[in-house]
Design brief:
The protein contains two helices and five strands. The chain is an alpha+beta fold. A hairpin with a 5-residue loop joins β1 and β2. The termini are far apart.
Length: about 140
């Protein structure tokens, strides 16, 4: 038995290098997962807004520029935040159309979510889905 105990400097540096490599791989994957899960929250909220707009239209004969259309009184231009406040949603008329017949709900990324490649997400009264910075099929 030679009496040596512990680890050498070379072993410590090797362990540190392996941990750094694992962190360099894991952090981007984790951040990508966070962006996707927040995007899912925005998609669900957009679908909820669209359903509420349809209820409002059936009761009042048209859509409204209120992102909370079932709250009374309706307030034109009122926006809404997703549950965890990573997106802000607004409702407006479809381009070149009357709001009473066609709306588009737009979710704009806020804070750290603004780094998401998809940018803003949209859903209109016809069910068309859109994404500002990426392909709608990928982003939705």
């Amino acid at each position: 038995m030679n009496g040596q105990a512990g680890i050498t400097l070379m072993e410590a540096l090797l362990a540190l290098a392996v941990m750094g490599l694992l962190a360099a791989i894991a952090l981007p994957v984790y951040e990508s997962h966070l962006l996707r899960s927040r995007r899912m929250e925005a998609r669900l909220e957009l679908m909820e807004v669209a359903a509420e707009q349809e209820r409002h239209r059936s009761r009042n004969g048209g859509y409204t520029a209120d992102a909370w259309p079932l709250q009374t009184p309706t307030v034109s231009g009122r926006r809404r935040l997703t549950r965890n406040e990573h997106y802000e949603i607004e409702v407006r008329a479809c381009p070149g159309q009357n709001l009473s017949h066609c709306f588009v709900a737009i979710a704009r990324a806020r804070g750290k979510q603004a780094r998401d490649e998809c940018g803003e997400l949209s859903l209109d009264s016809k069910g068309a889905r859109g994404a500002g910075g990426g392909e709608a099929g990928y982003c939705w």
